[in-house]
Specification:
The protein is an alpha/beta fold and 462 residues long. The protein contains 15 helices and 21 strands.
């Protein structure tokens, strides 16, 4: 016990902050948490959860079309956007209540107010002042809009999608990250004409090159107008909608323009500069391996530290910190083999290293990959393919990367993440009997190595 009001005070009620507060309180720490907006943070309110609900909604159009190949007679159908939004809002409200109860159960004092640091141990909550021995910054991030002419006047960001009063008939999506790809699939599935623009030559930077190419092909096959090397210079409103002027490529007009071009850490207005918490050039909180900031009693976890911006990572960081500080169980978080997914249509899922990363790290790399028409679509007639890939360190035979583009990819890769964390080898993959008939069995039946591009180049040079 200390002379402060709280042993531990968390600023931010998102995934990382809530987990840290709940675990700390369970360990006996007097814990407070401040969240002015909504409990659950981005993930629950304007991120993972409502986005995935919209992905489900949008996929029914394809399911209805495919049903005919299996003998179902599906009549006329329409989609009611307000119903989707209302039902989504009801589910989010339910989850907000769960988060409130999760905190109150172990005795966390929740303040539904904006928190500002006055000094390293004092927090202002409106007119109230509280003190804490240890403080955690877990305020997450938010989408940003560029300063290009007309963008802030006429475009929306990803947060706004979840509150649109009606579905646009035409939408331009600007961006090449996972959020842009996901919403392109959502709106396309719900019947919107979609154009996705990205300023570089290929989207999903950081993912395996073959994965990026495979998804681009599938999205275009599905009917999404995907354009690379397309730079928007300004937005203007006209009688026909919002017009995007493109550098060297004319213009496009739509009912809605969504910018998914980046996010920034929520560090403004917290008083961090006042107390001496160091920030990076991007505004992220700088922390050491123990999540400690430049001020010894102040810590930070989650998107605000700009490491791996995924909900399960923030949860792991918050839990590890609470165990370290209040349970005498010092531990950190491993960022190796963190699985990730893009809920595009089809979805992308990956764990471990890309081929490009592996070739930089290991002396020799073996690649196994396959692309095939899923069994489901032999009956539907749909032109769709699934892509799967294994990256292997040839010297140790250890599988160091698994990648997939296709239906159920995220569900399959979650299991393979366990294998990679256990150091599984290609021989062990090969010795595993497949579950037939499934797509997943392909991961244990790939036997033919892909040609080494470096060897092919050497042979061509000779």
């Amino acid at each position: 016990m200390t002379g402060y009001d709280f042993d531990f005070f968390v600023i931010g009620g998102g995934s990382g902050g809530v987990r840290a507060a709940r675990i700390a309180a369970g360990h006996g720490a007097r814990t407070g948490l401040a969240e002015a907006r909504y409990l659950g943070g981005t993930c629950v309110n304007v991120g993972c959860v409502p986005k995935k609900l919209m992905v489900y909604a949008s996929h029914f159009a394809q399911d209805f079309d495919d049903a005919g190949g299996f003998g179902w007679q599906v009549g006329p159908r329409t989609h009611d956007w307000p119903t989707l939004i209302a039902n989504k809002d009801r589910e989010i409200a339910r989850l907000n209540g769960i988060y409130q109860r999760v905190l109150e159960g172990p005795g966390v004092t929740v303040f539904r107010q904006t928190a500002t640091l006055l000094d390293p141990h004092t927090i202002a909550l409106g007119d109230t002042r509280v003190t804490a021995d240890t403080i955690l910054i877990a305020t997450g991030g938010q989408p940003t809009l560029p300063d290009d002419p007309g963008v802030k006047d006429h475009a929306i960001c990803s947060d706004d999608v979840f509150h649109l009063p009606r579905r646009p008939e035409r939408i331009i999506i600007v961006g090449g990250g996972y959020i842009a790809a996901e919403f392109a699939g959502v709106f396309h599935g719900l019947g919107t004409q979609v154009v996705q623009l990205y300023r570089r030559s290929l989207f999903l930077r950081g993912f395996d090159q073959d994965v990026r190419l495979a998804l681009a092909e599938e999205m275009r096959t599905a009917g999404i107008d995907l354009r690379f090397n397309a730079i928007v210079t300004r937005l203007d409103r006209s009688a026909d909608g919002i017009t995007a002027q493109l550098r060297d490529a004319g213009s496009l007009t739509a009912d809605c323009v969504l910018y998914a071009t980046g996010r920034k850490p929520n560090t403004e207005g917290l008083g961090l500069d006042r107390v001496g918490v160091a920030l990076s050039d991007s505004g992220a909180v700088r922390v050491d391996d123990d999540f400690r900031t430049s001020v010894p009693n102040i810590y930070a976890v989650g998107d605000v530290i700009h490491r791996i911006e995924l909900t399960p990572v923030a949860i792991a960081e918050g839990h590890a910190l609470a165990d370290t500080l209040f349970a005498n169980r010092p531990r950190g978080v491993s960022y190796d083999n963190v699985p990730s997914a893009v809920f595009s249509q089809p979805p992308v899922a990956s764990v471990g290293l890309t081929e490009e990363e592996a070739r930089r790290r290991f002396r020799t790399v073996d690649i196994y990959k396959t692309s095939f028409r899923p069994m489901r679509h032999t009956m539907t007639g749909r032109e769709a393919k699934t892509f799967m890939k294994l990256v292997v360190d040839a010297d140790s035979d250890r599988v160091v990367g698994c990648h997939m583009v296709g239906h159920d990819g995220p569900e399959i890769i979650q299991g393979l993440a366990i294998a990679l964390n256990c150091g599984a080898t290609k021989a062990q993959f090969d010795a595993t009997i497949g579950l037939h008939p499934t797509t997943a069995e392909e991961f244990v039946t790939m036997r033919t190595k892909a040609p080494d591009p470096g060897e092919a180049a050497r042979q061509a040079a000779e």
